[in-house]
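FAQ: What does the model actually see?

It sees only this:
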Amino acid sequence: MDQPLVIRYRFIFPHGREELVEVKINKNTMESAWEGAAAYPDWCKLEFQQCSNCTLSVATHPSCPLAIQLQKLLPASHQVSSYDEVDMEATTPERVVSKHTTVQRAISSLMGLVMATSGCS
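And it is asked to produce this:
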């Protein structure tokens, strides 16, 4: 299997706190894969408010792929307000993009990537 495409989002908060979120994308499927918890919060279960147009089955997908991805973003937004300022760096193999912005805008950029690569159908 090919090495995944790794995109790193680094959030640098005032007072020195940093959070790093890596999104590893399978180059063949263009879906992200997260390592981590075997058990997810109850709100990640597919049957918990499953989208009306969702084509996934609880038998094959006990957890919602998007919810699993989104719950991994929680540490980056812990103890901050949406309007707080943050320095964000997005690093790909080709480039580094950085911006001083609000937490809301920085997290929404990462959420867009996560949603597009979640495997949600």
